Amino acid sequence: MADLSASLPSGPNVKGRLSRDDIIMRLGMAMIAVYLLVTMVLPLWAMLSKSFSTFQYDLSGYELQVSDEDGKFDGTILTPAELNVEMNVIDQGDLNAGSDSRMGLTQFFPDFSFRSPVMYRIRNTSDSGRFLVGSELKTGTDWLELDSNTFRRVQMRPVKSTGLGNFVSYFSTPALSNSIKNSLFIAVISTIITVALAFWFAYGLNRSCMRFKGVFRLIAMAPILVPSLLPGIALVYLFGNQGIMKELLFGASIYGPIGIVIGSVFFTFPHAFIIISTALAISDARLYEAATSLRSTPWRTFWTVTIPGARYGLISAAFVVFNLVITDFGLPKVIGGQFNVLAVDIYKQVIGQQNFEMGAVVSVVLIVPAILAFAIDRLVQSKQVASLSARSVPYQPTPNKKMDNIFLVYSVLVAIFIVGILAICQYAALIKFWPYDLSFSLKNYDFNRMDGGGWGSYVNSIQLAFLTAIIGTCVVFFGAYLVEKSNGFGTGRAIFQMFAMLPMAIPGMVLGLAYIFFFNNPANPFNFIYGTLAILVICTVTHFYTVSHLTAVTALKQMDREFESVSASLKQPTMKLFSRVTVPVCMPAILDISIYLFVNAMTTVSAVVFLYSPTTTLASIAVLNMDDAGDIAPAAAMGMMIFYTNAAARIIHLLLSRKLLRRTQAWRTS
Amino acid sequence: MTDTTAVEQPYLSIEGLWKAFGDFIALRDISLDVQEGEFVCFLGPSGCGKTTLLRAIAGLDLQTKGKTIQAGKVVSDLPPSSRDFGIVFQSYALFPNLTIKKNIAFGLENTGRSKPDIESRVSELLELVGLPDQGDKYPAQLSGGQQQRIALARAIATNPGLLLLDEPLSALDAKVRVHLRHEIKELQRKLGVTTVMVTHDQEEALSMADRIVVMNHGVIEQVGSPTDIYRDPATLFVADFIGEMNQIPATAGATGKVKFGDAAMICRPHSFEQGDNVIAAIRPEDVIPHGDGARSPGREDIIETPENAFDVVVDEMEFLGSFWRCRLASERFGGAELLADFSINAVRRLELAEKMTMTIELPSERLMVFAPEAG
Question: Which of A136, A239, A442, A616 has its CA 20 to 30 A from that of A195?
Fold first, then answer.
């Protein structure tokens, strides 16, 4: 018998030669990895480093000389630091600055006059020092002599350093750090309400014999088709200052947490519903038979069988909703009023105050809960997969008149909520002048007369949606194929997987801001795409990469692992297998990915709000901007245009799928 | 096999093959020659490395160390597409969206064959695997056994020099399995293609293979023809894995002797030192039953080796259709019981019944001695 303790003989290991297919696969993977690196990792890195870079005026970094009235210098050297100690013109705290800040020097000379014949000399004390004369940057330590009129235009530039300064000032500014509390508050409340509502809705659809299930299922999915800020607009019409149901709030304002929570429940409902519905659908009927045969009461069965069976779905739904709410920007922007949340803070810091460093800090703060929620969700989902058994018998509900009616009434109420929000938007869009002139008119559709880019932005959105769907589906599916089906190269594949999962954890606002930092940098060779439709496409593909990737991976995992081996043994190129077998077999998943990307490209606001240019305005952004400008009815009209477009896209997708499937999936049906 | 060449070169030669997955060593120093046209089975329990070895031969998972030579050419580091083999997997791995014809034609395309050529070759192959009119169906419309035949047709379509079968029958029903194993063997004989099959089913290996390679823990325990492996297992593992084997702890005597307590019996020659702890082994069907009078001279029921004959109590009898399986207890073996398969004739002739005492003999040339398995 051979010796089992013997270890590998020394000498070189066998190193396989790569086939042409291996090389093609690796090149493809490298290309997609570079794509993800450039479109995600590097921008995020740029943002992270931005959040840690602080700018401060260094008053001891300059030396000055002042002449007498005749322009003669007596050789006395002053520094702004000494002058400040003497006169206390600037507080220490005011020395903190942004990357673009500048500060004049005349304030250190109380009797300065630009008409005076007094001359000034100035120099940096070190080579890294810099100041501006007008718009001209001066570096170096040589003395520069200036007359008073020119000295007026001398400005100090802050010195960059790396540190936690931005975070310190963030957390010591209650106006900013309160948003953390606010964001968590609305996210938690919205999560509890949405998950509870969605659970009973899904329960009714899966476990009762009520009627109209198909209709309810359709209605439950509708909110996915509109931007998250649309319910905000509806709420303004319902409960706003001129709202028709304002009295129902008993004096409370819809502008603030109430509005955000109601709107969040609306737009997160379908996400929670799908997850919980899936969890309830896979439950095993045999457990219920066992419970009945043990004479368990329905109540007890519910708590010992139903809830434990659906618990992973519930937890997963909760974290998904939490993540959606805490990272959402559109809704709190529209209905949040004075109630500050993190996502809106980023926007305000960047667009309002041009404080990019602080925008980066808020982004980092927002990433923390988003990544946590994401990580827990992934963990929970991996457990759910493990608990699935192929031998489960699906549960078949039995009619129960009383319960069926209760669920019917409940589902009707939920449906009224969802349809009502959409209907009020459509109604408001068609009204001449809310609430005074309720006659119908199409003037709100005359977008060209409003802020926001007019009908052009609608056309842009359609373009973006198509490009995102086509390019995104290709990149995602091909990338998933390479990572799933190539041999060896384990580390590379693991890194790729990580890259592919990252976008899910990155809030759209953060991604958009990161894109500014990365692509707007003139030194970046990709700078040329800044301000084009291309950057919007790339950003949107990246933003929605993870879900698409997971869909593709799930479909690919169902393919026999040995197809590639068989193809190689038959000496056929892998790309032939890919086009003849893999793509046709995975066509349902490919179509799902494309419609997912299309719909999201139509509705997204958060990532692209930083990236659109006057020529690439989008419909969803137009909704935001028109609402901002007070043109609420046109905003609602545009929002509904998005809804109809997405609904139409879905229907076309459905018909197309059916037709394609009939052709490519003939083998499935027979 | 032909004898035209002066020196018989093996078709496939494996030299000093090792495979490590991290710290785990899946294959240890495997060396093996396969002759042209031979049908070789890798047999062993799951995790013994047989599939790993097959995948290394195919180049699907390269070995860590060692050399493979196929048809006189070193192929150790070649990717699968540069090697010459056809492969059939347990899962069939038929392309679900292509018709049967297109599945079979997949490997014939891009090989310089004309369309009519490909079509006639596909029909020929369908004929060969006995499914001539199923060509326009999709794989899901065929039964498992039919699908596996199509997979076989696809694998041999390009006339590869080597056919690799990775547990091809394991996913099939028992009846289909027996039928198909006969067919595969026939086909292989007809085509004369060198074939390596991986299986964990000893019956499959015994009935199909020209030579069996028994593997365990990443090493080859024994290589030999099915009858060799069955009759002369090289190790206790092989003895135990293939067929039934009684195992009785014993001590070695001088060569050709083994002791149970004080009683010595004559056995096959062995190379143990006297007093070594060993396992004595005999197959149930090799135990010879004797009647009461067997010890008295002049009867035809003669005991050949008196040292190996002794009395046992029939503890339990189980009717298994073509024979009886008896559990025999004897003080010689301490508490251990001996399994013996007696023919229906013998049981009737000796009027065997439970709880009765009888004489058995362990024929010396069938009584083997092995070292106890480590661990």
Answer: A239
Q: What is the model's pTM?
A: 0.84
Give me the phi and psi of A15, to 5 degrees please: -110, 115
Task: With CB atoms and an 8 Å threshold, state whether B139 touches A667.
Answer: yes
Q: How far apart are CA A498 and CA A225, in angstroms?
A: 29
Residues of A in contact with B107 (CB under 8 A): 569-572
The pLDDT of residue A670: 45
Report the pLDDT averaged over residues B188-211: 94
**Is A212 touching B (CB cutoff 8 A)?**
no
Residue of A nearest to B166 (CA): A562
pLDDT of residue B296 exceeding 60, the answer is no
Mean pLDDT value of segment A313-321 = 89
Sign of the torsion angle spanned by Cα atoms A15, A21, A27, A29: negative
CA distances from B334 to A166, A549, B305, B312, B361 (A): 83, 65, 22, 12, 17
d(CA B80, nearest CA chain A) in Å: 6
Find which of A565, A665, A670 to mutate to test the B interface (most B CBs within 10 Å of its CB): A565
Please give the DSSP secondary-structure letter assigned to residue B293: G
B13 interfaces chain A, CB cutoff of 8 Å: no
> What residues contact A462, with CB distance under 8 A and at least 6 apart?
A602, A645
Phi, psi values for residue A118, rounded to 5° = -60, 135
Please report how the helices A508-519 and A356-387 are oriented relative to each other, as an axis angle in degrees rounded to 10: 130
Q: Which residues of B touch A666 (CB under 8 A)?
A: 97, 138
| Cβ–Cβ under 8 Å, residues A205 and A218 | no
Count of helices and strands (H, E) across chain B = 9, 20
A22 touches chain B (CB under 8 A): yes
3-state secondary structure (DSSP) of residue B246: strand
- Tens of pLDDT, residues A352-410: 888 888 889 999 999 888 888 888 877 877 776 555 555 566 777 888 888 899 999 99
pLDDT digits (tens, 9 = 90+) for A417-454: 999 999 999 998 888 877 777 888 888 888 777 776 78
CA B179 → CA A125, A295, B174, B199, B200, distances in Å?
A: 95, 50, 9, 16, 18
- CA-based nearest residue in chain B for residue A23: B79
Question: Taking residues A193-217, what's their average pLDDT?
Answer: 92
Contact B94, B129 (CB under 8 A): no
CB of B64 less than 8 A from some CB of A = yes
